Automatic annotation (TrEMBL), chains A, B:
Its main location: membrane. This is Magnesium transporter MgtE. It holds the Pfam family CBS. It comes from Bacteroides sedimenti. Belongs to the SLC41A transporter family. Homodimer. Acts as a magnesium transporter. Coiled coil: none annotated. InterPro entries: CBS_dom, CBS_dom_sf, Mg_transptr_MgtE_intracell_dom, MgtE_N_sf, MgtE_transporter, SLC41_membr_dom, SLC41_membr_dom_sf.
Length: 446, 446
């Protein structure tokens, strides 16, 4: 969205020139209008909103940034939200919207939806856990009976499809509404009209259970290159479908979450967020890092005699700490990513630690050897620092690799997001343990 | 894929029991057969392959892991690759496959494709840059003329669609093949048969140019919730389409790449990769970290008198270095993510640095104050360490925030991937600069 357009709209809103604003909006896609609204104040956005017809207003609302939408909805009475938006939305979008409200408002909004079938579907969908297929699915889909002929099917489909934006698959059920098959919409056009649905459909379609975790839904859609996936309940009845656009949002969100956790940001934060949010997202790990640093100073404090007699020991503190941090981050990142894309299972912990140890052994040997050569030239072979730094480095690399592997694996086993074990957690922990190893080895050797 | 199934297949292959293997495969989805092949040796995979019919073999091949596929294709003569796979593949998949081969093999494989139209399309597609819309698109799509009636259109579509797996949109062109409109396949069924195509279609469809960078294609598909997007050339002619499954792979790959760069892994590496690859992916940053650490020891070496007289100064080396690393990582991660999802533009550098400075000021004040209180209690207000640590911390947090913002912004401006400025790069640099600040401030104050 260009700056000029936004400025133009703001100006027109100030002049209360509804006609001109309407004219500007008429050719825009809902996603573009949403982008525009993200840049406006809630009051300005409200002005734009009241110019849109219901269908379009609903489409725009669901494309808006979550926080802008929240502010905006706070300005509107529940009745308007229900009648102007929820009645015109796909059920999965409506559920997403309702989940963002507090419970009192939820109840009130639901009671104002005029289309009883729509309201019933939404209430049913709200029962599912947000992180499962049931929580992400919608009920808009074309469903036909396996015993119908293709012409019957076509007729029925014309009715069902009237209200839907886009359709990719036709789902086939038996008389008890159990999912039996699927066929792409294209078959409706290319298949001879005499055929029965059951002869056209692909049997045993790929589907997910209402309780399937979202990560698994994402993997299934990605693996089989689907644009939508049917959702069934415990007795195999078709209860909804999940579309690829929702799944793509999930992929993006999860990747951003993992990245943020690995970078020491404790909540979802963007460049456009205000200073208060930016600060609170960063402070937790900075404070933990500070406590870690003070802890480190206490550990090192026990060895100040060592520093007084061997001041050169202090020179390698950054090297030992930094290497531990780097190695640990690498190991834990590989594990977290492997767990996220299912190429690694919790059952493989032992195997992964074994492999990691071999890699660590090679890296540790190489690095400590290089540093040994350097120190040999700088301080000579007899100096404590020469061998104690290299032995410590070796120990730190070995420890950090195994620790960086074990921690996320253990968290996964405990059903805690392993991504929290990356980034500052690993570097702070390895920093402290690295110092303990370094000091202990130095004292032992001198 | 379950271990038992894999073991069973391996056993059957050893016994050369083609019939039983075939029976096991018959109900599997191509993506599942590919997953199975990923677990087999190239020779075993070859045995499985020769049992599949051409269509299925092509589908399986494109779903395989890139490195497994490479090994496997090396076993096959170019003629077989052309006739058994490329002839049966979507053009975008065929291009992906051919790009993985070296140039000599590419030429030879292309010369063996029997379907001349297919070969021509592939050769044309290979001309586009891999990172643009042209490099990702395929030519399989249903195209109709704007002047046709819906029944004409239906007839033509039946022919075109016969060979295609799945169709979501129908693209409309004028007599000069310029893209004029689009309509979802559903309209084919719900629109009255008397209408002309031009009255059914949506005008000015969202499209991308052949030279549009892939990141922008991804953003467009995500923003408008499309399942496919048409690609046009410089004079607006429709030349191809990109489907959402390819885009989703891109989202996943890019997120993994950014994550790996931020974690100090210099190449794409997975838990299942062998030890050599694991080691080479990690060593570069570990060696750079080592050089950084040695550099740090040289800087600190100039101050060993300071450590001899004030051994307590050494205690805070980890705190100063660690805080600089943490702050820098946070700042650069926010910038990299903002640039990746286009919520931040290079032109906003000045604004972003300003905002970052305010956030840094709050964090710096808070952390240095807390550490000051701690040190006041531990060492007293008169000790050099008490104020020099806090002043240094303040300076380090301010510097690291601004540096962590400026570096990725500058890289983006220079068209270099800003993600390389995250992770070890930022922490090593901030570690060194932090030490210089700490030592300079200490010498100035004592």
């Amino acid at each position: 969205m260009e700056e000029e357009v936004i400025e133009k709209v703001k100006e027109l809103i100030e002049q209360k020139d509804s006609d001109m604003v309407k004219e500007l909006l008429i050719d825009l896609h809902p996603a573009d209008i949403a982008e525009l609204c993200n840049e406006l104040s809630p009051e300005e956005a409200r002005f734009v909103y009241l110019l849109l017809d219901n269908e379009l207003a609903a489409d725009v609302l669901i494309e808006m940034d979550e926080d802008v939408r929240k502010e905006f909805l706070d300005l509107l009475p529940p009745e308007i939200i229900a009648k102007r938006f929820l009645d015109y939305m796909d059920t999965d979008d409506a559920v997403e919207l309702i989940r963002e409200m507090d419970e009192d408002k939820q109840e009130e909004v639901l009671s104002h939806i005029e289309d009883i079938e729509q309201a019933g579907d939404i209430v049913d969908l709200l029962k599912y856990d947000e992180d499962t297929a049931g929580g992400l699915m919608g009920t808009e889909m074309v469903v036909v009976n396996e015993n119908w002929s293709m012409p019957e099917c076509l007729k029925e489909m014309r009715q069902q499809a009237e209200e839907m934006d886009e359709i990719y698959y036709v789902y086939v059920v038996d008389d008890d509404e159990r999912l039996k098959g699927v066929f792409p919409l294209k078959k409706m056009i290319t298949s001879p009209s005499v055929s029965k649905v059951r002869h056209v459909m692909k049997k045993d379609p790929i589907s997910v259970h209402v309780n399937t975790p979202i990560e698994e839904v994402v993997q299934t859609i990605e693996k089989y290159d689907l644009v939508a996936i049917p959702v069934v309940d415990s007795i195999g009845r078709l209860v909804g479908r999940i579309t690829v656009d929702d799944v793509m949002d999930e992929v993006r969100e999860q990747a951003e979450r993992d990245y943020q956790l690995a970078s020491g940001l404790s909540q979802d934060v963007e460049t456009h967020d205000n200073v208060a949010r930016q600060t609170t997202a960063r402070l937790p790990w900075l404070l933990i890092g500070m406590i870690g640093g003070i802890g480190n100073s206490m550990i090192l404090g026990n060895f100040d005699e060592t520093f007084a007699t061997h001041p050169e020991m202090a020179l390698y503190i950054p090297l030992i700490g930094g290497t531990g941090g780097n190695v640990g981050t690498q190991s834990s990142a590989i594990v977290v990513q492997g767990l996220a894309n299912s190429s690694l299972e919790v059952e493989e912990t032992f195997k992964q630690v074994g492999k990691e140890s071999v890699v660590a052994l090679i890296n540790a040997t190489l690095i400590s050897l290089l540093v040994y050569i350097y120190n040999f030239i700088r301080f000579g072979g007899a100096a404590t620092v020469t061998y104690s730094v290299s032995i410590s480095l070796f120990a730190v690399v070995m420890f950090a690799s195994i620790f960086g592997t074990l921690v996320p694996m253990t968290l996964e086993k405990m059903k805690i997001d392993p991504a929290i074990a990356t980034g500052p957690f690993i570097s702070i922990t390895n920093d402290i343990i690295g110092m303990m190893l370094y000091m202990s080895i130095t004292v032992l050797l001198s």
